[in-house]
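Project standup — Tuesday

K.O.: blocked on the structure for the chain from last sprint. Re-posting the sequence here as requested.
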Amino acid sequence: MTIKRHLPWPLQALLWAVVLGGGVALAVWTYELGRNNLPGIQSDAGEQLAELSVQVKKLSAENERLQTASNASQNELKIAQAAQAQLANQVKNLEAENNRQKEDLAFFDSLLPTNLGAPGITIQRFKAELAGPSQLRYRVLVMQGGGGTQQFAGNLQLSITIWQAGKSAIINFPESNSTDLARYRLAFKYYQRVEGVLNVPEGATIKAVAVRVLDRGQVRAQQSVDL
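H.V.: unblocked you, prediction finished:
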């Protein structure tokens, strides 16, 4: 048989009061400690947030500055490229004009009294070059020798030899049903320059070009060039 001893109830009540008081004191001490330390934690977090905000603003400003500089550089590059293309086009035009001036100088030199040559119609200059995949640009200078005492009236005819679909063919200009015959008419006493652009069928390769001066259907002069 086991005998259990019980503390008198006054002692038990006192013991429970001590334990309960200690727990309350510990809770109050923990609360006060947390409350005293919380402002410091909040202050540190606020300072870090402010620093991060400043860094974000600095990075945003730097990004905007770099973007502005990049846009300015791109605009300057486009302007430089456009200026370069314009200068290249001007150089090309000046070279073409220079060549034309040389041709005119040589031609007018041929008109001097000592270089009038025998009477008759001649093709003094003839140039043909590709102006595009299916286009040909030509320039013809026709001259009448012997002082040009009479007015010449005739026609210009051009023949283009092409290669297409494995076959060779010749296209004559002006065509029989052409509506712009006036551009091929010749009427001059000393000389006449004729120039223009001819179209050929798409996919055709131009092999050669011939030019003729016709007088009432008769050939008075002719020249040809290979391309």
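K.O.: great, moving the ticket to review. Residues 10-110 form one domain. The chain is about 45% helix and 35% strand.
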